[in-house]
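Quick one: structure tokens for this chain, please?
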Amino acid sequence: MPSPSNPDLFPAFPLADYLHHQKEIDAALERTLARGHYILGGEVAEFEREFAAFVGTRHAVGAANGTDAIELILRALDVGAGCGVVVPSHTAVASASAVSRAGAQPVFADVEADTCTLCPRSLAALLDSPRGKRVRAVLAVHLYGHPCDMDSLARVCGERGVVLIEDCAQAHGATHKGRNAGALARAAAFSFYPTKNLGAIGDGGAVTTDDDALAARIRSIREYGWVRRYISDSVGVNSRLDELQAAILRVKLRDLPARIGRRRELAGLYAELLAGCGFVTVPEVRDGCGHAYHLYVIQSPRRDALMEHLKSRGVPVALHYPAAIHQQPGYAGAAADSPALPVTDALMPRILTLPLHPYMTDEAVHHVCEQIRDFAG
């Protein structure tokens, strides 16, 4: 078994992704630079077309980043001041930040213990409570790459007249009953942060939707509210996907199904090797769902000791996330206006992210699992 310090065991990511695609990416960058059109040109238009086809929606609208993509959806839906938006507290803070930037108020809901995704029962109880009266939208975060229970969430929202949108920042290539994440609600936001399943070499994002009017409004809002150049029909922002990043994403998009397939292979190997390890719970996958495994997050009642043990053996573990949003000082006000979140509170000291990306070898997973079993011994 190679030493844990061997770079072949845990190659740096996303650098490994660039090196895998280097020849094609370098050619795409040279092509784009030579064209001399660097803002909302042909590369963005082609990427939007190709990404919409991948997701299975009529439209994809590029944005500067995934946080902006959420904000653009909310702005286009007129969800702003005085409105509440339900967000699971167990997610990246960007989900709530986008709500605040749109002028709305995050309202936190609990998650399911097994999938860590938004709990339909918690959502229904929240919407039926006095807190739910001002809620206009629900952000379904497909955390770690596992799709939410979209049928149940859609039913809860539909019965109460609340719009359902997706946060797909970690769910490129995830599926729900044969349909891709990003095609399961009114609109969806994607991030192309470099570590994502589909990552740029810098920031980037997109909105996907089947709603023609909504897509047109988002295209306007992302560029100052223009419908005609230099004439703002509404108050907009500057959130444009860069031509160079679009060129990079077009290269990587072609290879995305294979990269997700490899993630699933490694996740399956983790599950096989950790079966029967009593103090570790591996991720579950809901029937009818395809996990994209952006992150491989286990649970353990001995999380802190296990984390230190693995770090001492050179295993690059992480916490996603060290604190839920409602536990963070910047969101104390929103937390006070939200219900109790017992499942989220219980998860925080248990979760641990193990290394997983498509350029790791099976040998690396064997090494991680050997160190976990050594800790158990």
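Residues 1-5 have pLDDT under 50 and may be disordered.
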